[in-house]
Fold Selenocysteine-specific elongation factor.
Amino acid sequence: MTKRYFTIGMAGHIDHGKTTLTKALTNVDTDRLKEEKERQISIELGFAPLYEDEEIQISVVDVPGHERFIRQMIAGVAGIDLVVLVVAADEGVMPQTKEHLEILDFLGIRKGIVAITKIDRVDEEFSDLVKEEIIEELKGTVFEHVPFVLTDSLSLNGIDELKQLIIHTLKEQDTRDTKGAFRLPIDQVFTVKGQGTVVRGTVYEGWVEEGQPLKILPKGLEVRARQLQVHHQPANTAYAGQRAAINLSGVSKEDIERGEVLVSSEHFSVTKTIDVAVRMVENFEHIIKQRMPIKCHIGTAEVMGRIVFFDRNELNDNDGEILCQLRLDEEIVTKRGDRFILRRPSPQETIGGGWVIDPNGEKYRFGLKTIEELSKKKEGSPKDRIMAALTEGKSLSLSEIMTRTSLDEITVKEVLADADFLSINSKEFTLAAIKESIEEELYDRLHEFHHQNPMKQGLNKAELLQVMLRAYPKMLVEFVISLGTECGIFRRKGQYLQNADFHPHIPQNWQKRIENLLAELKKDGLKVKHFDDYYFSAGIPEVLKGDLKRFLEEQGTIVPLDGQFYWHGDHFGQTVDKLKKDTGAEFEVGDAKEVLGLSRKYMIPFLERLDSMGLTNRIENKRVWRKTDH
């Protein structure tokens, strides 16, 4: 069973007990800043591990409740899978509770639990009134039918019940996509003494591992993941749904800003103009006008811009879903389906939210024709729907594509004939972009391996597959390797795979010493010393011995007689030629000794090497030359 990773959020009004409830559930105090403790409010996002078993891992984010810290709240909620809406029994539903509910709805959070806190402060009758008030408030929202739990974080009343409900709910829920390209919107950047720059965030999709080359968008900075932590614990890999801290090489703290995105692929759009579907809040106080300044919160980014309508000049009341465009002042990283929140910069208030129809919007004319085009784009053309299905599934059969897209066979086959799609084996299909992404990742992994191990033939294909299969189906990876080999990108050497532009070589800084070793070996002819003596004499370190011996053997520069003695390749070839020339079709040990004049110390290992190489075949006391070139 593949382990699944989830992040849940605590949302609600200031001072309703979110941080205390988080501590009761996790035994971690998420108020980490001095000013937070002094003022007893959360300013920054607070994270803590909640639960882990062989099946799932659950983390908690405690998002700030104060209106001034709404940006951090949106950044935290945007990466979560389930929300615990916290309402204090002694206060009930408050303005920030309502705003948080609207934001959760706009961000597409559909799973929730209501935790009524501080129940030890009120009697049973009063807590029942609060519950009825909350039920009334939730009517018509996505949380209308969510379960309730009565809790008190100090006495721990109801805490275990809440925890078990969270675990049970998430075990029934689908996890995020760990097979897509890695994406982590950055919400914190800092430095650690002796380590360098660290970024933190929730992995939206995909996975990342130590040593992996990455990019920071929109700037396009190339970095490498030096070290990973998941909730302060070292980890080799971080998956979608996990909260991760990544130590980056190749960049300073000053180069990175909150809101930028760490990715493993360039297939994410960097854009300033996005076509969107927007819904507005139920009751907004001020008219929303054409090209009005807005503040867009998407992922962890907060960007100023303007809203552009194509079928109206102003909005007086909630009018259902509106198709329009956001023209932003700065570039963001997004893709179709991403959720966002819109806020008025002044006076500050949440005015709506929605999802990205097309991250690469263009300038359109005002009028119903544009709305019709946006509507078609929203529904998605057959090609859009198939591309979306393959982006998620990586490789799918014809019937799987039909099921996921609700398209008929003729339409699907017509679309799959497009150059953007590839047939793997006439039964499975993938995207050309996915093939290119896998090809690039394979090349990068092999390049890194060659850099670290210049004398090795390449990376064991089975080891490479083991890593790649975390993200892609085996058939798809095998297909890309096969295609890349045919096209001259990769080269197979037995069980090893190498980049076609790589050739095993001795590191330049050891070249002279190894030349000295080979010269000494050649000078000794057939009466060689123990091979370790040549290493010692040439000053070659122990750590290089294994790789060097394997490399020289593979190149034919040295030939082992046994584990102790090696001949120079030239001498070995000449000796085989001489023995074959001066003996008949078959010979005995004595015949070989007479021809070569070698002692048993070298003769017996040499003859056994001829047998193992298939040059001779031993029959009792005789050896017969095989009909083969050596």
Remarks:
- Residues 483 and 630 are 33 Å apart (CA to CA).
- Confidence is low (pLDDT under 50) at residues 30-44, 65-69.
- The two ends are 51 Å apart (CA to CA).
- DSSP finds 19 helices and 35 strands in the chain.
